[in-house]
Amino acid sequence: MKPLEISVLDLAPVKQNKSIHETFNDSLDLARNVEKWNYRRFWLAEHHNMASIASSATSVLIGFIANGTQKIRVGSGGVMLPNHSSLVIAEQFGTLESLFPGRIDLGVGRAPGTDGLTAKALGRNPMTINEQFPKQIRELQQYFSVENQNSAVRAIPGEGCDIPIFVLGSSTDSAWLAAEFGLPYAFAGHFAPEMMSFAFEIYRENYKPSEKFPEPYLIACVNGIAAETDEEAKKLTTTLYQAFLNIIRNDRKPYSPPVDDMDAIWSPMEKAAVLQKLRYSFVGSPETLQGQIHSFQDRFQVDELMITSHIYEQEARLKSYEIFRQVVDLLNKA
């Protein structure tokens, strides 16, 4: 099996009966623990108008997490670039990199991270997104370059900062773009499993080496729920099921605690839709996870596994990430 790096995608999940202040402290607590367990990076995702997700001001939250940790890389998974000016993002991440040298990642995506009405409120123009997104990546690269010092518009802070840019995607469009630009590629397998295999194939077969990334680099984001037993993990997973069910029902309320019987909540059609979207979810005991991850890696041969874990209780969430670290360590040694 190809050795795996392991990382975290955090959405700053808001749970019932918890404040957003507590949510942010839970995210910092998670970051400090996964840093202790030698996770590679801790990314936060930009979403808007969702009562269950508090990571809308992604750059601000990255600063909070980076300031509370010491060595783990912290970044965006991602910033939805067409929601912003390229210059503003270059300045924000240049500021972060200047505050926390060698620890900041910039993952960028083209989706709005929200519904259509909120996307309009963000000032997006859907008619120009496909042209705008690659142009903005080039603008970021220019703003971060030392050569931009002679330009009329400069990103300060930002200029000369060594900030790796990752292309995020949930379709094949982003795979072509990441390959063309010679950038690392992170796929959202945790909610868009349908195109992942094809996207990876496109990326690898069409990759054009760049100075910073002479080889392709693939990150697969997946759902992960680990516990001491399969039964416990399956029950914890009902929080994830309810979250996706709420999206289907357009009810974006805070996350719910686990339940004993999902069949009392969803219809057979809803169940099928949720399980299809969560195809790439690793759920179970350490022994079960070993087989699941080994099978996944045998098929996809990714460089990094990025785990997002929708677990209601903080202690159970921490335990899950600790188990994943142990399982991946065992597989890497095999």
TrEMBL record:
Domain of life, source organism: Bacteria
GO molecular function: oxidoreductase activity, acting on paired donors, with incorporation or reduction of molecular oxygen
Any Gene Ontology CC annotation: cytosol
Domain Luciferase-like as annotated: residue spans: 21-298
One of the Pfam families matching this protein, by short name: Bac_luciferase
Family indicated by similarity: To bacterial alkanal monooxygenase alpha and beta chains.
Name the UniProt record assigns to this protein: Luciferase-like monooxygenase
Organism the protein comes from: Chryseobacterium koreense CCUG 49689
